[in-house]
Backbone:
């Protein structure tokens, strides 16, 4: 079998859904916001102090298996935040960027994710140049704490962030054929090539 590894220009390409999740514990966020002593109170009922604004490590999103660059005519990113903490989270701000050029493709804010709740936002991407390597950045996350209310301190409680990039339609892409049989793939990758 011959494997095509050279990038080619295509007129149209539709990508499948790209989904991933990542979690951060209450202990990790407390450490990052200067409340590293919180772990000393594990399994105790106490008022939980505020979590100062923090940013989270960048999340790389690799589309390079399918494309190098593309002009996205339409697409969507769904962000779902599940707050497993006993306190509210506020002002979660994220942005999706091209990793090399650094330009922002989209940004969004979750003003409030109540304790124990899940909140989802869907944002549309239109007429954007997208690289094969993207980065998702949580540039702000904070909490007012529990105030005077007593809550159970469990530093292993998690906030889970799930992203789903789907229904991406691109034009004038520089695409790569992955090392797999596209025809028999579960996802559909219709490709029309210009003979010119």
Residues:
């Amino acid at each position: 079998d011959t494997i095509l590894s050279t990038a080619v220009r295509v007129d149209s390409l539709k990508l499948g859904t790209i989904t991933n999740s990542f979690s951060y514990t209450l202990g990790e966020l407390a450490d990052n916001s200067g409340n590293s002593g919180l772990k000393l109170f594990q399994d105790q009922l106490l008022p939980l102090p505020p979590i100062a604004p923090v940013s989270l490590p960048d999340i790389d999103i690799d589309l390079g298996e399918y494309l190098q660059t593309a002009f996205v005519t339409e697409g969507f990113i769904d962000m779902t935040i599940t707050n497993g903490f006993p306190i509210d989270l506020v002002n979660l701000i994220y942005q999706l960027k091209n990793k090399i050029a650094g330009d922002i493709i989209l940004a969004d804010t979750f003003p409030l994710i109540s304790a124990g709740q899940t909140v989802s936002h869907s944002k549309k991407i239109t007429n954007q140049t997208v690289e094969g390597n993207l980065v998702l950045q949580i540039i702000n996350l904070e909490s007012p704490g529990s105030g005077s209310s007593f809550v159970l301190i469990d530093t292993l409680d998690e906030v889970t962030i799930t992203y789903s990039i789907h229904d991406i339609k691109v034009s004038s892409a520089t695409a790569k054929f992955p090392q797999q049989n596209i025809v028999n793939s579960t996802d559909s990758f219709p490709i029309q090539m210009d003979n010119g």
